[in-house]
Design goal:
77% of the residues lie in helices and 0% in strands. It has 110 residues and is mainly alpha-helical. It has one domain (28-107). Pfam families: Hpt. This is Hpt domain-containing protein. One of its GO terms (biological process) is phosphorelay signal transduction system. GO terms for molecular function: protein kinase activity. Residues 40-105 form the HPt domain.
Length: 110
Amino acid sequence: MCSGGPVSDAAAKTAALLATMWEKNLPVLRERVAVLDRAAQAALAGALHDELRVEAAAVAHKLAGSLGMFGYPEGTRVARELEVELGETNTTKAARLEELVHTLRAVLPL
């Protein structure tokens, strides 16, 4: 097998493009994780209102849809779990939300 052919060049270009896109989107990604943080903290304080819950669920949905593209399948899994937790208005567990947000921060280089 030879190395350095068109396939490796294409792979390298794709990786570079994704890295550039990641850097460009970091402020948005950080803000989305901050919304999840606010929702988890509000839930811990017993003050997670519907508006924040809905916003956080939408943010989790967006993260779940994009993190895999950037090579963070674990981030996608955690974001999906957050989306489910936030969507269940009567059963949201504050400690679980906080744990999931902490896990998300640990997997992502923010």
